[in-house]
Amino acid sequence: MRVSVVIPAYNADRTLGQAMDTIADQSRPPDEVIIVDDGSTDRTADIAASHKLSNQLVRTANSGAASALNTGVEQATGDVIAFLDADDLWEPRKLETQLAAIEHDPSIDLVMGHYEAFKCPSVPAEQLAKLRYAEGEQPGFLLGCMMINGRYLKSSGIEFDVSLRTGYHIDWIRRLRQLGLKEHMLPDVVMRRRITGRTLSQRVGSRDGLSLDFLEIARRALAAKRLDNA
Q1: Are 161 and 176 in contact (CB under 8 A)?
Q2: 106-115, pLDDT tens digit by residue?
Q3: How many CB atoms lie within 10 A of CB 135?
């Protein structure tokens, strides 16, 4: 079974190399790695091109992470597709563990695992002290914790919504679930999430500190539920 990895990256020259290292060190290496440079103005593309991990670099105009993910999925040729943000890290057996779950039960469309967060050491201590996030192992409803059947995803016609700058993966998985997505959560920790001020404070069009994107996602979910109950 061929495994594709998609990494959306924007101005990620400080962390992309480490993220790619964790892919290169997988116990079960991927068959292809697609890095979509979303119009970076730093050395992101140079780092991707020079890394020891063999990869396909796609450069696009800056259009947001959702658009970069769609580009990566379109390019992917694997039977399954895994995702990784350019500032997160995989555990060494991430791909092996999730692939085994799908091979054991081919009816699974999406397999996830747990994650643990860690504070980025480059962030000043006084800023780190103000950050609030879930500590310990958490169920991985984050893209970097997922592996999805590539044929299922492409045949579904479900793409990441480019109108959303944050929370696009929440809306994406909700729409897949409406189609009868079969998902499975592994107990294993498969990813380490890097916590920075930017990770937790990214807000687009904020109202009272809450992203309008998340309000829109909640509105859509409620509307879909009303239709289901009608």
Answers
A1: no
A2: 999 999 999 9
A3: 11
Q: Is residue 213 part of a domain?
A: no
Tokens of 203: 């807000």
Confirm whether 25 is domain-assigned.
yes
Q: CA 149 to CA 3: how far, in whole Å?
A: 10
Element (H, E) at 105: none
Contact (Cβ atoms closer than 8 angstroms) between residue 191 and residue 118: no
Give 137's strand partners.
Answer: none
Confidence of residue 133 (pLDDT cuts 50, 70, 90): low
Q: Mean of the pLDDT values across residues 164-173?
A: 92
Structure tokens at 83: 């995702």
Query: Is the distance from CB of 189 to CB of 97 less than 8 angstroms?
Result: no
225 in any annotated domain: no
Compute φ and ψ for 172, nearest 5 degrees.
Answer: -60, -50
Q: What proportion of the chain, given as a percentage, has pLDDT over 70?
A: 87
Amino acid found at 150: G
Mean pLDDT of 134-145: 87
The range of the structural domain enclosing residue 153 comes to 3-201
- Tell whether 26 is covered by a domain: yes
In angstroms, rounded to a whole number, what is the distance separating the alpha carbons of residues 96 and 110?
Answer: 15
Given this model, what pLDDT does residue 37 score? 98
User: Of the ranges 36-40, 79-83, 177-181, 225-229, which one carries the lowest mean pLDDT score?
Assistant: 225-229
Interatomic CA distance for residues 53 and 34, integer angstroms: 11
Three-class DSSP category at 24 = helix
In DSSP terms, 93 is beta-bridged to none
